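In the lab's daily routine, each protein ends up as an entry in a very long ledger. A line of letters takes care of the sequence, but it says nothing directly about the fold. The fold becomes a row of whole numbers, each drawn from a learned catalogue of backbone shapes. The protein below has been through that process, and both of its lines are reproduced in full:
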Amino acid sequence: MKKKLIAISLVAMLGLSGCGLTGTSSSSSEASVAEETTAEEATTEAATEEETTEAATEAPTEAETEEETTEAATEEETEEDSDKDSADKGSASAKPVEGLSDKYVDFDNRSFAYNGKVFTVGESTFQDLVDGGVAFKEDDLNNINNNVNKNHSTSTYTVKISDYSSIQFEFINCTDDSMQEKDCVLSSARWYTIYVPQFADDQKRNDDIIADLEKAAEVVSFSFPLTLKKDDLLAQAPDYTDYSEGMEQYSYQVDSTKYFGGSGYKFEFNKDIGQLEEVYITWLP
């Protein structure tokens, strides 16, 4: 009987031990699962935060890229505008003076302007140019009362326009009597420059020449720019009457009804860059 009781006690103890062991194992498993779940959640949260950070990083990066592209495009446009402005500044364009022709070659209006005052070859007199402010030399003005025989011309008078350019005038007595120079009609006006910006390896020198042409354009102007290109002339006035290859000169002439020969326009261009070096406007009745 005692043995039986001891056996029962042992069985009971073993049962309790089993229950205790089972409970401990279950708790450990739950703790392990909880830890794994917590780790997974932490990992997920970290991954989510990382993705969010990456997305946030990518968004500003794209915005910055677009901004940089816009800035680059703006800078490029600004540079192009600047280049265009520089080109325009160097063009020595004709001043918009009322009275000048709208054609490069106009036999009915062979005009030019000096400080905004319009004069016409074949109409204006020596006195008109003096009164209009053309800066003749003092020695030239001393000739204004000299007599000119019929069908004769005066001397050639040169007026400096800028460092590199000048304009020359001649006057003619087309009457049958002598007259004073001041009453003679302007028979020719010749503008010329000794330099054009043709130096590919010397931009500083080109800039100096361009600046000089701009200065000249502030004083004298025609119906065409002082920087007229050969192609532009031929595009507007293709019907020239003569061409001199050696001088790269294009002539537009009409015959005189009183004298031998003709008068009109002669344009001479630089052979290397095709830019105007001289224009010679003449008139004969």
Notes: The helical segments are 2-89, 126-131, 138-141, 203-217, 230-236. Residues 1-89 form one domain. The longest helix spans residues 2-89.
